[in-house]
Amino acid sequence: xxxxxxxxxxxxxxxxxxxxxxxxxxxxxxxxxxxxxxxxxxxxxxxxxxxxxxxxxxxxxxxxxxxxxxxxxxxxxxxxxxxxxxxxxxxxxxxxxxxxxxxxxxxxxxxxxxxxxxxxxxxxxxxxxxxxxxxxxxxxxxxxxxxxxxxxxxxxxxxxxxxxxxxxxxxxxxxxxxxxxxxxxxxxxxxxxxxxx
Length: 197
Prior knowledge:
Blueprint: E1 2-7, H1 15-33, E2 39-44, H2 49-58, H3 63-74, E3 77-85, E4 88-89, H4 91-98, E5 109-116, H5 124-135, E6 139-140, E7 145-148, H6 158-175, H7 191-194
Parallel strand pairs: 1-2, 1-3, 3-5, 5-6, 5-7
Antiparallel strand pairs: 3-4
């Protein structure tokens, strides 16, 4: 299994990357329970920030950005984590996925995560990230993980939630291999046929 991790943390080290790593570790561990191996690649969007902006304003695609977008297309699953700013995903996270054509993620299992300073934004995944990935026709796993600053304490349930999310992703990968992509425009019906002529 090829798992691609997309972390949109801006600092280094970041709690966003820490959550991404822990979610991935949980998924890999649960895949191992099903005798499945996983190869993990992590993309730090902070390293592609200028490339993403250049692509949006000039249409120039750097080799590094092209590799990242190609890996999004080919990965068996994604683990994506964004910091929450002003109640929603980060601009860099959104801009990167604005570059992904909808068909590239069709049927791809995606585990969603987010980090923030306060528990007040815990629904940001449900009203921001999940609808975006639904539009991209990805298969988001049921359990998502939001980690506020206080969740990193010893008495938190964060570890339990991370384990459950990892188990969800592993279960989807084991039960439902990614479907073959079908081009909906491969066989075009002539317009005259549509008009009945």
